[in-house]
C-alpha cells in the first residue's frame, strides 16, 4: 500500500508532505520567510492532520520537521493580533489548540520529530508531543507564552512536567529561558540530541526502524504510554483556558508589541 502524499497536500495545503520510504509519511512545516511560523491555516492543518493519519492504513510512522534551518517559530504575529481583536478567531484557535494536542496524543501511528533551529509555540507542541524527539545540538527550544504575556498553555502543562520534572518545568516555563538541544536532552525534554546536520537522517533512521516493527506492538505501546498524558488532561484544559483568557487582557498587547519591536516588555502590575 502506497502513501498518497498528494492527497495530504490537497487536504492540508499549508503543510508539505513527502513519502521518503514505504510506510513513512514526512510532514514538513513550511513558512521559510518567517522561520516556519504557524499561520491561521497552518494552525488548523496541524490540529486536524492527525485524524487523517490515524485512519490511513498506508501510514505506519510519521516524521515531522521544519523546512530549511528551523522547526517553527510559533504563532504568526498576524494570527495573534486577530486572536486579540476578534472573538470568533480566538474561540476557533482555542478549539484548534485543544484538538492539536488531543489528536496527536490519540493518533495511533508513532511520530518522530526532527528539531533543528528555532522551536517555539504550536510548532514546539508537535515537536515535544511526538513519541520520539530528535534535536540538533544548537536547536533553540522556547515555550514563549509568558514572554507574550499569557499563561503557558498549548502543550506545556500536559508534557513538560512528565518529561523533565516539575522543578525544571517551573523554571523554564516561568522564566522563559531558552534551551539548546543539548540541554533539552540533558534534562529529558527530548529523547536524543545529535549534531544539527544529522537531525533529519537520525529521525529517518528511527522512523525506518519503527516502520519495520510490528504495527500493533508499536501502536498499542504508544496508546498505553499516552495514558500518562490523558491523566493530565484536566491540567492541560485548565492551562489552555487560562492562556486564552490572557488574550483578552492588556498584557498580551504589550507583549506582542515588544516582540515586534524586539525590546523587553513592560508589563503593568495587576
Q: Into which percent range does the helicity of residues fall?
A: 40-55%
Choose one word for the global shape.
Answer: globular
Helix-strand sequence: HEEHEHHEEHEEHHHEHEHHHHH
Structural class: alpha/beta
Q: Under CATH, the topology is which?
A: 2-enoyl-CoA Hydratase, Chain A, domain 1
Question: How far apart, in Å, are the first and last alpha carbons?
Answer: 58 Å
Q: Which CATH architecture is right?
A: Alpha-Beta Complex
Q: Find the count of extended strands (DSSP E, 2+ residues).
A: 9
Q: Helical region count?
A: 14
| Poorly predicted runs | none
Quickly name the level 1 CATH class: Alpha Beta
Cα radius of gyration in angstroms? 18 Å
How many independent structural domains?
1
Spell out the key features of this protein.
alpha/beta, 2-enoyl-CoA Hydratase, Chain A, domain 1, six-stranded mixed beta sheet, 270 residues
Structure description:
- With 270 residues, this protein is α/β, with parallel strands linked by helices.
- It has one domain: 2-enoyl-CoA Hydratase, Chain A, domain 1, CATH 3.90.226.10.
- The chain contains 14 helices and 9 strands.
- The chain has helices at 5-11, 40-54, 77-85, 87-106, 121-129, 145-148, 156-164, 166-175, 181-187, 199-211, 215-225, 227-231, 233-246, 250-261; strands spanning 15-21, 24-29, 61-66, 111-115, 118-120, 132-136, 140-142, 179-180, 192-194.
- The chain has a 6-stranded mixed sheet with strand order 1-2-3-4-6-9, sandwiched between helices.
- Strand 2 (24-29), helix 2 (40-54) and strand 3 (61-66) form a beta-alpha-beta unit.
- Helix 3 (77-85) runs antiparallel to helix 14 (250-261) and helix 7 packs across helix 8.
- The longest helix has 20 residues, at 87-106.
- The radius of gyration is 18 Å and the shape is globular.
- The model has no long low-confidence stretch (mean pLDDT 96).
